[in-house]
Amino acid sequence: MVAEANELIRGSGHELAAGLRAGAFSSVELVEAHLAAAERDNHGLHAWLTIEDTGARAAATAADSRLVQARREGPAVLAGLPPLLGLPVALKDLVSVEGGQCTAGSRILEGYRAPYDAHITERLRAAGAVILGKTNMDEFAMGSSTEHSAFGPTSNPWDLDRVPGGSSGGSAAAIAAFHAPFGIGTDTGGSIRQPAALCGIVGMKPTYGRVSRYGIVAFASSLDQIGPFARDSRDAAALLHAVAGRDERDSTSAPVPVPDALLALAASDDAAAGALRGKRLGLPREYFVAGMEPGVEARVREAVAALEAAGATVDEVSLPHTEYGLATYYIVAPAEASANLARYDGIRYGRGRRDGDTLSNELATRGEGFGAEVKRRIMLGTYALSAGYYDAYYLKAQKVRTLIKADFDRLWDAGFDALVAPTSPTVAFRFGARLADPVSMYLSDACTLPVNMAGLPGVSIPCGLSDGLPVGLQLIGAPWSEAGLLELARGYEAITADAAWRGLEPTQLALAGDPTQPSPAERAAALAGAA
Protein backbone atom coordinates (compact mmCIF):
# COMPACT_ATOMS: atom_id res chain seq x y z
CA MET A 1 0.00 0.00 0.00
CA VAL A 2 2.88 2.39 0.83
CA ALA A 3 4.52 1.63 -2.52
CA GLU A 4 1.22 2.27 -4.32
CA ALA A 5 0.74 5.55 -2.46
CA ASN A 6 4.28 6.65 -3.34
CA GLU A 7 3.61 6.01 -7.01
CA LEU A 8 0.31 7.88 -6.80
CA ILE A 9 1.83 11.09 -5.41
CA ARG A 10 4.57 11.11 -8.05
CA GLY A 11 2.19 11.50 -10.95
CA SER A 12 1.85 14.84 -12.72
CA GLY A 13 -1.39 16.72 -12.29
CA HIS A 14 -2.61 15.94 -15.79
CA GLU A 15 -1.79 12.24 -15.33
CA LEU A 16 -3.66 12.19 -12.02
CA ALA A 17 -6.64 13.98 -13.61
CA ALA A 18 -6.78 11.29 -16.31
CA GLY A 19 -6.66 8.58 -13.64
CA LEU A 20 -9.53 10.17 -11.72
CA ARG A 21 -11.70 10.36 -14.82
CA ALA A 22 -10.91 6.77 -15.74
CA GLY A 23 -11.81 5.61 -12.23
CA ALA A 24 -8.34 4.16 -11.63
CA PHE A 25 -8.45 5.69 -8.14
CA SER A 26 -10.62 8.14 -6.24
CA SER A 27 -9.93 11.68 -5.13
CA VAL A 28 -10.20 10.48 -1.53
CA GLU A 29 -7.43 7.92 -2.15
CA LEU A 30 -5.32 10.53 -3.90
CA VAL A 31 -5.77 13.09 -1.15
CA GLU A 32 -5.06 10.57 1.60
CA ALA A 33 -1.77 9.65 -0.10
CA HIS A 34 -0.70 13.29 -0.31
CA LEU A 35 -1.81 14.05 3.26
CA ALA A 36 0.22 11.09 4.50
CA ALA A 37 3.33 12.33 2.67
CA ALA A 38 2.91 15.88 3.96
CA GLU A 39 2.40 14.77 7.55
CA ARG A 40 5.28 12.28 7.37
CA ASP A 41 7.81 14.78 6.03
CA ASN A 42 6.78 17.94 7.84
CA HIS A 43 9.06 17.39 10.82
CA GLY A 44 12.04 17.25 8.49
CA LEU A 45 10.97 19.90 5.98
CA HIS A 46 8.56 22.23 7.82
CA ALA A 47 6.95 23.07 4.50
CA TRP A 48 3.47 23.33 6.05
CA LEU A 49 2.23 25.67 8.75
CA THR A 50 -1.12 23.88 8.87
CA ILE A 51 -2.54 20.78 7.18
CA GLU A 52 -6.33 20.96 6.86
CA ASP A 53 -7.07 17.25 6.63
CA THR A 54 -10.77 17.46 7.57
CA GLY A 55 -11.59 20.06 4.93
CA ALA A 56 -9.44 18.26 2.35
CA ARG A 57 -11.25 14.98 2.88
CA ALA A 58 -14.63 16.67 2.57
CA ALA A 59 -13.60 18.37 -0.68
CA ALA A 60 -12.25 15.08 -2.04
CA THR A 61 -15.52 13.31 -1.24
CA ALA A 62 -17.46 16.04 -3.05
CA ALA A 63 -15.14 15.71 -6.06
CA ASP A 64 -15.69 11.96 -6.18
CA SER A 65 -19.45 12.51 -6.25
CA ARG A 66 -19.06 14.83 -9.25
CA LEU A 67 -16.85 12.27 -11.00
CA VAL A 68 -19.28 9.41 -10.42
CA GLN A 69 -22.17 11.49 -11.74
CA ALA A 70 -20.18 12.57 -14.79
CA ARG A 71 -19.30 8.97 -15.64
CA ARG A 72 -23.00 8.11 -15.58
CA GLU A 73 -23.80 10.99 -17.93
CA GLY A 74 -21.24 9.99 -20.52
CA PRO A 75 -17.82 10.84 -22.01
CA ALA A 76 -18.75 14.37 -23.12
CA VAL A 77 -19.75 15.39 -19.59
CA LEU A 78 -16.69 13.69 -18.13
CA ALA A 79 -14.39 15.51 -20.57
CA GLY A 80 -16.02 18.82 -19.63
CA LEU A 81 -15.10 18.61 -15.94
CA PRO A 82 -12.63 21.21 -14.62
CA PRO A 83 -9.00 20.05 -15.05
CA LEU A 84 -8.24 20.49 -11.33
CA LEU A 85 -11.25 18.55 -10.04
CA GLY A 86 -10.25 16.33 -7.12
CA LEU A 87 -6.57 17.32 -7.22
CA PRO A 88 -4.61 18.61 -4.19
CA VAL A 89 -3.31 22.19 -4.01
CA ALA A 90 -0.98 23.83 -1.46
CA LEU A 91 -1.60 27.49 -0.58
CA LYS A 92 1.00 29.94 0.69
CA ASP A 93 -0.11 31.20 4.11
CA LEU A 94 -1.05 34.67 2.92
CA VAL A 95 -4.08 33.47 0.93
CA SER A 96 -7.38 33.99 2.74
CA VAL A 97 -9.48 30.86 3.24
CA GLU A 98 -12.69 31.55 5.14
CA GLY A 99 -12.36 30.36 8.72
CA GLY A 100 -8.75 29.31 8.27
CA GLN A 101 -5.51 30.77 9.55
CA CYS A 102 -3.67 33.38 7.51
CA THR A 103 -0.46 34.34 9.30
CA ALA A 104 1.68 35.61 6.40
CA GLY A 105 4.51 33.97 8.35
CA SER A 106 4.23 36.60 11.11
CA ARG A 107 3.52 36.50 14.84
CA ILE A 108 1.47 39.65 14.48
CA LEU A 109 -1.20 37.60 12.63
CA GLU A 110 -0.92 34.52 14.82
CA GLY A 111 -4.42 33.39 15.73
CA TYR A 112 -6.10 35.49 13.04
CA ARG A 113 -8.84 33.68 11.09
CA ALA A 114 -9.79 34.93 7.64
CA PRO A 115 -13.45 36.03 7.48
CA TYR A 116 -13.75 35.43 3.73
CA ASP A 117 -12.21 33.58 0.77
CA ALA A 118 -9.63 35.21 -1.49
CA HIS A 119 -10.57 35.43 -5.16
CA ILE A 120 -8.20 32.60 -6.02
CA THR A 121 -9.67 30.47 -3.21
CA GLU A 122 -13.11 30.97 -4.75
CA ARG A 123 -11.75 29.99 -8.15
CA LEU A 124 -10.06 26.88 -6.79
CA ARG A 125 -13.22 25.79 -4.99
CA ALA A 126 -15.23 26.33 -8.18
CA ALA A 127 -12.73 24.17 -10.05
CA GLY A 128 -13.16 21.38 -7.49
CA ALA A 129 -9.53 21.52 -6.34
CA VAL A 130 -8.73 20.17 -2.88
CA ILE A 131 -6.92 22.62 -0.60
CA LEU A 132 -4.56 20.61 1.62
CA GLY A 133 -3.42 23.45 3.87
CA LYS A 134 -1.16 26.47 4.18
CA THR A 135 2.58 26.52 3.56
CA ASN A 136 5.46 28.30 5.26
CA MET A 137 6.87 31.59 3.99
CA ASP A 138 9.15 34.49 4.82
CA GLU A 139 7.30 36.95 7.04
CA PHE A 140 5.02 39.13 4.89
CA ALA A 141 6.85 37.65 1.88
CA MET A 142 10.03 39.59 2.74
CA GLY A 143 12.94 37.29 2.06
CA SER A 144 14.65 34.94 -0.37
CA SER A 145 15.16 31.89 1.82
CA THR A 146 12.10 31.27 4.09
CA GLU A 147 14.48 31.80 7.01
CA HIS A 148 12.51 34.92 7.97
CA SER A 149 9.35 33.01 8.88
CA ALA A 150 8.35 33.70 12.47
CA PHE A 151 7.53 30.00 12.75
CA GLY A 152 10.94 28.66 11.75
CA PRO A 153 12.67 27.88 8.45
CA THR A 154 11.86 25.32 5.76
CA SER A 155 14.42 22.84 4.43
CA ASN A 156 15.14 22.11 0.80
CA PRO A 157 14.35 18.43 0.04
CA TRP A 158 17.50 18.20 -2.10
CA ASP A 159 19.66 19.04 0.94
CA LEU A 160 18.06 19.51 4.34
CA ASP A 161 20.84 21.87 5.48
CA ARG A 162 19.95 24.30 2.69
CA VAL A 163 17.14 26.77 2.09
CA PRO A 164 14.35 26.21 -0.45
CA GLY A 165 14.43 29.85 -1.53
CA GLY A 166 11.77 32.36 -0.69
CA SER A 167 9.52 33.89 0.10
CA SER A 168 7.30 31.06 -1.18
CA GLY A 169 9.72 28.38 0.01
CA GLY A 170 7.09 26.28 1.78
CA SER A 171 5.01 25.83 -1.36
CA ALA A 172 8.09 25.12 -3.50
CA ALA A 173 9.40 22.51 -1.06
CA ALA A 174 5.97 20.88 -0.79
CA ILE A 175 5.67 20.46 -4.56
CA ALA A 176 9.25 19.21 -4.90
CA ALA A 177 8.64 16.70 -2.09
CA PHE A 178 5.48 15.31 -3.76
CA HIS A 179 3.09 16.61 -1.10
CA ALA A 180 0.84 18.10 -3.80
CA PRO A 181 0.98 18.36 -7.60
CA PHE A 182 -0.02 22.05 -7.49
CA GLY A 183 0.93 25.00 -5.31
CA ILE A 184 0.25 28.71 -5.04
CA GLY A 185 2.89 31.34 -4.29
CA THR A 186 3.28 35.08 -4.63
CA ASP A 187 6.06 36.87 -6.48
CA THR A 188 7.05 40.44 -5.54
CA GLY A 189 10.69 40.33 -6.67
CA GLY A 190 11.18 36.68 -7.58
CA SER A 191 9.45 34.84 -4.75
CA ILE A 192 7.90 32.19 -7.01
CA ARG A 193 10.63 31.82 -9.61
CA GLN A 194 13.63 31.78 -7.28
CA PRO A 195 12.34 29.01 -4.95
CA ALA A 196 11.15 27.07 -8.01
CA ALA A 197 14.72 27.19 -9.33
CA LEU A 198 16.25 26.17 -6.00
CA CYS A 199 13.82 23.26 -5.56
CA GLY A 200 13.87 21.99 -9.15
CA ILE A 201 10.25 22.66 -10.13
CA VAL A 202 8.26 25.01 -12.39
CA GLY A 203 7.13 28.38 -11.03
CA MET A 204 5.46 31.24 -12.86
CA LYS A 205 4.94 34.92 -12.12
CA PRO A 206 2.10 36.07 -14.39
CA THR A 207 1.69 39.54 -15.86
CA TYR A 208 0.76 42.08 -13.19
CA GLY A 209 -3.03 42.18 -13.15
CA ARG A 210 -3.55 38.69 -14.58
CA VAL A 211 -4.61 37.28 -11.20
CA SER A 212 -6.68 39.15 -8.62
CA ARG A 213 -4.92 40.06 -5.38
CA TYR A 214 -8.22 40.25 -3.47
CA GLY A 215 -7.80 38.32 -0.21
CA ILE A 216 -4.00 38.18 -0.41
CA VAL A 217 -1.98 39.75 2.41
CA ALA A 218 -0.18 42.67 0.75
CA PHE A 219 3.56 43.35 0.73
CA ALA A 220 4.14 45.81 -2.17
CA SER A 221 0.91 46.43 -4.03
CA SER A 222 2.37 47.49 -7.39
CA LEU A 223 4.66 44.46 -7.51
CA ASP A 224 2.87 41.50 -5.85
CA GLN A 225 1.42 38.86 -8.15
CA ILE A 226 -0.03 35.40 -7.44
CA GLY A 227 1.17 32.48 -9.52
CA PRO A 228 1.45 28.70 -9.84
CA PHE A 229 3.97 26.07 -8.80
CA ALA A 230 3.96 22.66 -10.44
CA ARG A 231 6.33 19.92 -11.53
CA ASP A 232 5.82 20.55 -15.27
CA SER A 233 4.63 23.32 -17.56
CA ARG A 234 1.28 21.72 -18.45
CA ASP A 235 0.29 21.62 -14.79
CA ALA A 236 1.45 25.21 -14.21
CA ALA A 237 -0.67 26.30 -17.17
CA ALA A 238 -3.76 24.48 -15.88
CA LEU A 239 -3.44 26.05 -12.43
CA LEU A 240 -2.92 29.52 -13.87
CA HIS A 241 -5.99 29.08 -16.08
CA ALA A 242 -8.05 28.16 -13.01
CA VAL A 243 -7.11 31.18 -10.88
CA ALA A 244 -6.63 33.95 -13.45
CA GLY A 245 -9.21 36.46 -14.63
CA ARG A 246 -10.86 39.78 -13.91
CA ASP A 247 -12.18 40.48 -10.41
CA GLU A 248 -14.16 43.66 -9.77
CA ARG A 249 -12.99 43.72 -6.14
CA ASP A 250 -9.39 44.36 -7.22
CA SER A 251 -8.93 47.58 -9.20
CA THR A 252 -5.57 46.33 -10.51
CA SER A 253 -7.12 43.15 -11.90
CA ALA A 254 -7.05 43.55 -15.68
CA PRO A 255 -10.08 42.95 -17.95
CA VAL A 256 -7.98 40.72 -20.22
CA PRO A 257 -9.41 37.33 -21.30
CA VAL A 258 -7.66 34.23 -19.96
CA PRO A 259 -6.44 32.29 -23.01
CA ASP A 260 -7.75 28.75 -23.43
CA ALA A 261 -4.36 28.03 -25.02
CA LEU A 262 -3.17 27.48 -21.46
CA LEU A 263 -5.13 24.21 -21.53
CA ALA A 264 -3.85 23.20 -24.96
CA LEU A 265 -0.11 22.76 -24.48
CA ALA A 266 1.16 19.86 -26.59
CA ALA A 267 0.92 16.46 -24.94
CA SER A 268 3.42 14.79 -27.29
CA ASP A 269 7.11 15.63 -27.05
CA ASP A 270 7.46 15.79 -30.84
CA ALA A 271 4.74 18.43 -31.16
CA ALA A 272 6.06 20.39 -28.18
CA ALA A 273 9.62 20.40 -29.53
CA GLY A 274 8.38 21.48 -32.94
CA ALA A 275 6.95 24.65 -31.42
CA LEU A 276 10.51 25.88 -30.71
CA ARG A 277 11.41 26.13 -34.39
CA GLY A 278 11.57 29.69 -35.60
CA LYS A 279 11.24 31.29 -32.15
CA ARG A 280 13.44 34.32 -31.59
CA LEU A 281 14.90 34.50 -28.08
CA GLY A 282 17.06 37.16 -26.46
CA LEU A 283 19.87 36.38 -24.02
CA PRO A 284 20.44 39.46 -21.79
CA ARG A 285 24.13 39.82 -21.00
CA GLU A 286 23.36 41.77 -17.81
CA TYR A 287 21.70 38.71 -16.22
CA PHE A 288 25.02 36.87 -15.96
CA VAL A 289 25.80 38.85 -12.83
CA ALA A 290 29.01 39.07 -10.83
CA GLY A 291 29.12 36.25 -8.32
CA MET A 292 27.15 33.81 -10.47
CA GLU A 293 28.29 30.28 -9.75
CA PRO A 294 30.14 28.64 -12.67
CA GLY A 295 27.93 25.55 -12.52
CA VAL A 296 24.78 27.66 -12.77
CA GLU A 297 26.10 29.58 -15.78
CA ALA A 298 27.17 26.32 -17.43
CA ARG A 299 23.71 24.73 -17.07
CA VAL A 300 21.97 27.85 -18.38
CA ARG A 301 24.24 28.11 -21.41
CA GLU A 302 23.73 24.39 -22.11
CA ALA A 303 19.97 24.97 -22.02
CA VAL A 304 20.35 27.89 -24.45
CA ALA A 305 22.40 25.68 -26.77
CA ALA A 306 19.68 23.01 -26.63
CA LEU A 307 17.03 25.56 -27.59
CA GLU A 308 19.18 26.66 -30.54
CA ALA A 309 19.68 23.05 -31.62
CA ALA A 310 15.90 22.61 -31.59
CA GLY A 311 15.45 25.46 -34.08
CA ALA A 312 15.17 28.58 -31.95
CA THR A 313 17.29 31.63 -32.73
CA VAL A 314 19.10 33.10 -29.72
CA ASP A 315 20.68 36.56 -29.91
CA GLU A 316 22.61 38.30 -27.16
CA VAL A 317 20.77 41.47 -26.13
CA SER A 318 21.21 44.27 -23.62
CA LEU A 319 18.90 45.57 -20.91
CA PRO A 320 21.09 48.50 -19.87
CA HIS A 321 19.09 49.65 -16.86
CA THR A 322 19.20 46.21 -15.20
CA GLU A 323 22.09 47.37 -13.02
CA TYR A 324 19.74 49.82 -11.30
CA GLY A 325 17.02 47.24 -10.75
CA LEU A 326 18.11 46.05 -7.32
CA ALA A 327 18.46 49.54 -5.87
CA THR A 328 15.19 50.67 -7.43
CA TYR A 329 13.32 47.66 -6.10
CA TYR A 330 14.61 48.20 -2.58
CA ILE A 331 13.21 51.71 -2.57
CA VAL A 332 9.82 50.99 -4.16
CA ALA A 333 9.03 47.73 -2.35
CA PRO A 334 9.85 48.90 1.22
CA ALA A 335 8.00 52.18 0.62
CA GLU A 336 4.85 50.31 -0.35
CA ALA A 337 5.37 47.82 2.48
CA SER A 338 5.61 50.60 5.07
CA ALA A 339 2.19 51.86 3.94
CA ASN A 340 0.59 48.41 3.72
CA LEU A 341 1.85 47.27 7.12
CA ALA A 342 0.62 50.40 8.91
CA ARG A 343 -2.72 48.59 9.36
CA TYR A 344 -1.18 46.16 11.87
CA ASP A 345 -1.69 48.32 14.94
CA GLY A 346 -2.98 45.78 17.43
CA ILE A 347 -6.55 47.03 17.13
CA ARG A 348 -7.91 45.61 13.86
CA TYR A 349 -5.86 42.54 12.98
CA GLY A 350 -4.25 39.69 14.87
CA ARG A 351 -2.46 40.08 18.16
CA GLY A 352 -2.49 43.25 20.22
CA ARG A 353 -1.30 44.62 23.56
CA ARG A 354 -4.03 46.05 25.79
CA ASP A 355 -2.18 47.03 29.00
CA GLY A 356 -1.25 50.62 28.24
CA ASP A 357 -2.38 53.71 26.35
CA THR A 358 -3.12 53.55 22.63
CA LEU A 359 0.32 54.63 21.44
CA SER A 360 2.29 52.40 23.79
CA ASN A 361 0.05 49.44 22.93
CA GLU A 362 0.62 49.99 19.20
CA LEU A 363 4.38 50.33 19.62
CA ALA A 364 4.54 47.19 21.76
CA THR A 365 2.34 45.22 19.37
CA ARG A 366 4.47 46.09 16.36
CA GLY A 367 7.72 45.67 18.26
CA GLU A 368 6.79 42.19 19.44
CA GLY A 369 4.84 41.08 16.38
CA PHE A 370 7.17 42.02 13.52
CA GLY A 371 10.46 40.27 12.85
CA ALA A 372 13.81 41.93 12.15
CA GLU A 373 13.55 41.86 8.35
CA VAL A 374 10.06 43.36 8.35
CA LYS A 375 11.17 46.14 10.70
CA ARG A 376 14.19 46.82 8.48
CA ARG A 377 12.03 47.25 5.40
CA ILE A 378 9.41 49.37 7.17
CA MET A 379 12.19 51.72 8.30
CA LEU A 380 13.71 51.86 4.81
CA GLY A 381 10.33 52.56 3.25
CA THR A 382 9.29 55.17 5.77
CA TYR A 383 12.58 56.98 5.27
CA ALA A 384 12.19 56.92 1.45
CA LEU A 385 8.69 58.42 1.73
CA SER A 386 9.52 61.04 4.35
CA ALA A 387 9.42 64.77 3.70
CA GLY A 388 12.64 65.92 2.06
CA TYR A 389 13.53 62.47 0.72
CA TYR A 390 10.48 61.52 -1.36
CA ASP A 391 11.75 63.24 -4.53
CA ALA A 392 15.32 62.07 -4.05
CA TYR A 393 14.45 58.42 -3.51
CA TYR A 394 10.92 57.22 -4.23
CA LEU A 395 10.13 59.53 -7.14
CA LYS A 396 13.51 58.91 -8.75
CA ALA A 397 13.06 55.14 -8.29
CA GLN A 398 9.74 55.29 -10.12
CA LYS A 399 11.41 57.12 -13.00
CA VAL A 400 14.12 54.45 -13.21
CA ARG A 401 11.39 51.81 -13.09
CA THR A 402 9.97 53.35 -16.26
CA LEU A 403 13.39 53.05 -17.92
CA ILE A 404 13.65 49.38 -16.91
CA LYS A 405 10.28 48.69 -18.53
CA ALA A 406 11.33 50.62 -21.65
CA ASP A 407 14.37 48.32 -22.04
CA PHE A 408 12.05 45.33 -22.27
CA ASP A 409 9.59 47.13 -24.55
CA ARG A 410 12.33 47.81 -27.10
CA LEU A 411 13.02 44.10 -27.36
CA TRP A 412 9.36 43.20 -27.85
CA ASP A 413 9.15 45.89 -30.54
CA ALA A 414 12.22 44.33 -32.19
CA GLY A 415 10.37 41.05 -32.62
CA PHE A 416 11.72 38.87 -29.81
CA ASP A 417 9.31 36.16 -28.66
CA ALA A 418 10.88 35.87 -25.21
CA LEU A 419 14.08 36.33 -23.23
CA VAL A 420 16.02 33.47 -21.72
CA ALA A 421 18.19 33.96 -18.62
CA PRO A 422 19.26 32.42 -15.32
CA THR A 423 16.64 32.45 -12.57
CA SER A 424 19.04 32.53 -9.63
CA PRO A 425 22.78 33.23 -9.75
CA THR A 426 23.39 30.40 -7.28
CA VAL A 427 22.00 27.06 -6.24
CA ALA A 428 20.37 26.68 -2.82
CA PHE A 429 22.61 28.05 -0.08
CA ARG A 430 23.08 26.78 3.47
CA PHE A 431 21.04 28.01 6.41
CA GLY A 432 22.54 31.16 7.87
CA ALA A 433 24.90 31.80 4.96
CA ARG A 434 23.36 35.20 4.15
CA LEU A 435 21.48 36.21 7.28
CA ALA A 436 24.30 38.35 8.63
CA ASP A 437 24.50 40.35 5.39
CA PRO A 438 21.06 41.46 4.14
CA VAL A 439 22.54 42.89 0.93
CA SER A 440 23.95 39.49 -0.07
CA MET A 441 20.49 38.04 0.55
CA TYR A 442 18.91 40.72 -1.62
CA LEU A 443 21.27 39.79 -4.47
CA SER A 444 19.50 36.41 -4.66
CA ASP A 445 16.76 38.15 -6.63
CA ALA A 446 19.00 40.11 -9.00
CA CYS A 447 17.87 38.08 -12.01
CA THR A 448 14.17 38.11 -11.19
CA LEU A 449 13.14 41.49 -9.77
CA PRO A 450 13.42 43.51 -13.03
CA VAL A 451 10.49 41.43 -14.31
CA ASN A 452 8.35 42.63 -11.38
CA MET A 453 9.45 46.22 -11.89
CA ALA A 454 8.19 45.99 -15.49
CA GLY A 455 5.03 44.01 -14.64
CA LEU A 456 5.98 41.19 -17.04
CA PRO A 457 5.36 37.44 -16.92
CA GLY A 458 8.27 35.11 -16.19
CA VAL A 459 8.62 31.39 -15.60
CA SER A 460 11.41 29.31 -14.08
CA ILE A 461 11.91 25.75 -15.29
CA PRO A 462 14.51 23.16 -14.21
CA CYS A 463 17.55 22.90 -16.51
CA GLY A 464 19.83 20.47 -14.71
CA LEU A 465 21.98 20.26 -11.61
CA SER A 466 25.12 21.94 -10.31
CA ASP A 467 26.92 20.24 -7.44
CA GLY A 468 23.90 17.95 -7.13
CA LEU A 469 21.44 20.85 -6.67
CA PRO A 470 18.81 22.21 -9.09
CA VAL A 471 19.41 25.09 -11.48
CA GLY A 472 16.58 27.16 -12.96
CA LEU A 473 16.20 28.58 -16.46
CA GLN A 474 14.08 31.73 -16.67
CA LEU A 475 11.88 32.66 -19.61
CA ILE A 476 10.55 36.24 -19.72
CA GLY A 477 7.82 37.45 -22.04
CA ALA A 478 5.82 40.48 -23.12
CA PRO A 479 2.67 41.36 -21.16
CA TRP A 480 -0.10 38.72 -21.33
CA SER A 481 2.19 36.16 -23.05
CA GLU A 482 1.90 33.45 -20.38
CA ALA A 483 0.59 30.84 -22.83
CA GLY A 484 3.49 31.48 -25.20
CA LEU A 485 6.04 31.30 -22.39
CA LEU A 486 4.63 28.02 -21.14
CA GLU A 487 4.65 26.67 -24.70
CA LEU A 488 8.38 27.44 -24.81
CA ALA A 489 8.82 25.80 -21.40
CA ARG A 490 6.94 22.73 -22.63
CA GLY A 491 9.21 22.63 -25.69
CA TYR A 492 12.31 22.69 -23.50
CA GLU A 493 10.86 19.87 -21.38
CA ALA A 494 10.36 17.87 -24.58
CA ILE A 495 13.90 18.30 -25.95
CA THR A 496 15.40 17.37 -22.57
CA ALA A 497 12.96 14.55 -21.77
CA ASP A 498 15.72 11.93 -21.97
CA ALA A 499 18.28 13.88 -19.92
CA ALA A 500 19.56 11.86 -16.96
CA TRP A 501 18.72 14.61 -14.47
CA ARG A 502 15.05 14.52 -15.46
CA GLY A 503 14.59 11.21 -13.65
CA LEU A 504 16.19 12.30 -10.40
CA GLU A 505 14.24 12.99 -7.22
CA PRO A 506 15.29 15.23 -4.31
CA THR A 507 18.23 13.41 -2.80
CA GLN A 508 17.39 13.88 0.90
CA LEU A 509 13.65 13.37 0.73
CA ALA A 510 13.90 10.05 2.57
CA LEU A 511 15.67 11.80 5.47
CA ALA A 512 12.83 14.31 5.73
CA GLY A 513 10.47 11.52 6.72
CA ASP A 514 12.78 10.20 9.46
CA PRO A 515 11.48 11.46 12.84
CA THR A 516 14.92 10.98 14.40
CA GLN A 517 16.43 13.63 12.11
CA PRO A 518 16.77 17.27 13.26
CA SER A 519 14.07 19.75 12.31
CA PRO A 520 14.99 22.65 9.98
CA ALA A 521 15.16 25.00 12.99
CA GLU A 522 17.55 22.61 14.74
CA ARG A 523 19.67 22.30 11.60
CA ALA A 524 19.82 26.07 11.23
CA ALA A 525 20.83 26.46 14.87
CA ALA A 526 23.53 23.80 14.55
CA LEU A 527 24.98 25.45 11.44
CA ALA A 528 24.94 28.83 13.18
CA GLY A 529 26.74 27.33 16.17
CA ALA A 530 29.36 25.70 13.94
CA ALA A 531 29.99 29.03 12.22
Brief account:
By secondary structure, the protein is α/β, with parallel strands linked by helices.
Question: Can you describe what's shown?
Answer:
The protein folds into two domains: 433 residues, Amidase signature (AS) enzymes; 71 residues, no CATH class. It has 20 helices and eleven strands. The protein has an eleven-stranded mixed beta sheet, sandwiched between helices. The chain is globular, with a radius of gyration of 22 Å. The mean pLDDT is 96.
Layout of helices and strands:
Blueprint: H1 2-9, H2 13-22, H3 27-45, E1 48-51, H4 53-73, H5 75-79, E2 88-92, H6 119-126, E3 130-135, H7 169-176, E4 182-186, H8 193-199, E5 202-205, E6 226-230, H9 233-243, H10 269-274, E7 280-284, H11 294-309, E8 313-317, H12 325-340, H13 358-369, H14 372-385, H15 390-413, E9 418-422, H16 438-442, H17 449-454, E10 458-466, E11 469-476, H18 482-495, H19 509-512, H20 520-530
Parallel strand pairs: 2-3, 2-4, 7-8, 7-9
Antiparallel strand pairs: 1-3, 4-6, 5-6, 5-10, 9-11, 10-11
